[in-house]
Amino acid sequence: MSTAAVLDIGSNSIKILVARRDERGRLQPVFQDTLDVRISAGINAARPVLDEEAMQRGLAAVQQLLTAAASHSPERATLVATSAVRDAVNGADFAARITKATGFELRILTGEEEANAIGRGLTCDPALADLQDFHVFDLGGGSLECLTFHGRQISQAVSLPLGCVRLTEKFVPDPGLPLSATIREKLARHIQTALAEARFQLDLPFPIAIATGGSVVTVRAIRAARQGVALDATSPIVTLRQMRELLEQTGGLSLTDRRAIPGLPPARADVFPTALATLVAVAEHAKVTAFRHSFYNLRYGLAAELLSAG
After folding, report:
1. Which residues, including other chains, have CB under 8 Å from residue 303's CB and lie 6 or more apart?
2. How far is Cα 90 from Cα 99, in angstroms, rounded to an integer?
3. Which of 44, 114, 220, 236 has the greatest count of CB atoms below 10 A from its CB?
């Protein structure tokens, strides 16, 4: 069977997926890995710039992941970048450096392309096969992708600058301190205003929306650590109440204490309270009581695209 590799350079992490289709045509992961290499420091600036150290870390991570994926002999591969590289004034320079070092062209996705690839990935999730009409929210480090499906087709897609790294830089003066109630209120107002001004229509009567992204994975990872089970053994349902409780617990801690939480990657500890505050604000704005998490995201959508190509 043919295999395809997708490497995704995000704001907060760099990830790779090697996938193939099984005998029934379903997309199956062969290999996956994630490196928490934040290249997006300064993303909230008027003219964001990828600094030299960030680009070196990013390039090293890309080479490491490509080497790991090579043992699975993917016939096709694509490298993509999202918000951090898309918004950086020197994003094209970083892309050229990646191409020179690896031989692969780096495709910098537009917000619309990113949202559509996420949507295609979700339609590959067998657990969602029965859903026809639903909303999707994908929270990254630089942006929040909002989608609506009608009849399993994307009818609405919006990319907003509401990623957890970006919002932490904008609203949190010192990520080493607990997240105050005042900052949480400012975050909530900003997020709900942005969603309202984007005119993202929330006209579906379902109390549960689909959520993707590393922050929701982290919520499940913390739950898995507490329950003493594997991450994929936890429920994919993350309720609004659970997110509020976890926000109270983690937001009330110093960065040092957050880094000690089992299941919470230390490299994400500084932005995790902001991520939770964002998810809570999105749920409240969308009037949903829970999110249903899916692992089938942007990388799965692009892998499906590669494997469907002639």
Report:
1. 4, 5, 6, 17, 19, 27, 121
2. 15
3. 114
Q: Please tell me the pTM assigned to this model.
A: 0.93
Ranges for all domains in the chain classified under CATH 3.30.420.40: 3-112
The one-letter amino acid code at 209 reads A
Residues 156 and 201: beta-carbon distance below 8 Å:
yes
For 126-293, which CATH superfamily applies?
A: Exopolyphosphatase. Domain 2 (3.30.420.150)
- What confidence tens digit (pLDDT) does each residue in 124-152 have? 999 999 999 999 999 999 999 999 999 99
Dihedral angle computed from the Cα positions of residues 258, 264, 265 and 270, in that order, rounded to the nearest 10 degrees: -40
Strand, helix or coil for residue 172:
coil
**pLDDT tens digits for 41-76?**
888 888 999 999 999 999 999 999 999 999 999 999
CATH number attached to the domain at 3-112: 3.30.420.40
Q: What is the distance in angstroms between the CA of the first residue and the CA of the last residue of the chain?
A: 14
* CA nearest neighbour of 232 among 240, 223, 241: 223
Amino acid at 262: P
Domain with CATH 3.30.420.150 in the chain: 126-293
